[in-house]
Design brief:
This protein has two helices and ten strands. The protein is mainly β and 199 residues long. The protein folds into two domains: 32 residues, no CATH class; 143 residues, Lipocalin, CATH 2.40.128.20. It has a ten-stranded antiparallel β-barrel. Strand 9 and strand 10 form a beta hairpin.
């Protein structure tokens, strides 16, 4: 049996071309490739390859462990933890209410939910899911004043939802919530929460 000889390293250009060659090799009889070309399209994405751009730090003012107060009553209503995961690419929110604010009638437990946020190269995206209201998908960006503003991609229960996060001079963060009949643009304030550091 002849001795095996190690192949010489491939040039960088050849390595970059490898996905295309694999796609071609898996095409049988002129038919479509056995897998979608999506993996190749991902290589051409405009999403930054790292998560350390200025845009990825736009939400850093909200990171931390917080006590959450209702702005109208100044009552502690929830606790929330906001942290970065996956080398700073994902912002995760984990919120638990300690009062019945936002609790739906007949629901056994108080509101608790998680939010996942990600800058995708063009805008911020958020997926919120909880134990009673369901799941809501948002998109948005910083406004001219430096506040993060997100609105629903599709209506939730026939309503559009908008959230605004505003960094305040005392180190707290205000989270304003608005709702509107789907497609109307007639926003009404639904909630006003003040985040104070949990010390």
């Amino acid at each position: 049996m002849p001795a095996q000889v190690a192949s010489p390293p491939r040039p960088a250009a050849a390595r970059r071309a490898a996905p295309c060659l694999v796609a071609a090799a898996l095409t049988i009889g002129g038919a479509a490739p056995l897998f979608a070309a999506e993996s190749i399209a991902l290589e051409q994405s405009t999403t930054p390859s790292t998560c350390d751009t200025p845009q990825h730090h736009q939400f850093d003012f909200w990171l931390g462990s917080w006590q959450v107060f209702d702005a109208a009553s100044n009552q502690l209503v929830a606790v929330d933890r906001i942290e970065k995961l996956a080398e700073g690419c994902i912002v995760e929110q984990s919120m638990t209410f300690v009062t019945d604010l936002y609790r739906r009638p007949g629901v056994k437990y108080r509101l608790a939910g998680i939010g996942l946020f990600r800058f995708d190269g063009a805008e911020w995206l958020q997926m919120w899911a909880d134990n009673q209201w369901g799941a809501i998908f948002f998109h948005g960006a910083l406004d001219a004043g430096g506040s993060m503003v997100m609105t629903t991609v599709t209506p939730s229960r026939n309503r559009d939802v908008k959230e605004v996060w505003l960094k305040r001079s005392d180190g707290s963060v205000e989270n304003l919530e608005y709702v509107a009949p789907a497609g109307s643009g007639k926003w009404q304030k639904y909630g006003d929460l003040i985040y104070r550091p949990n010390r």
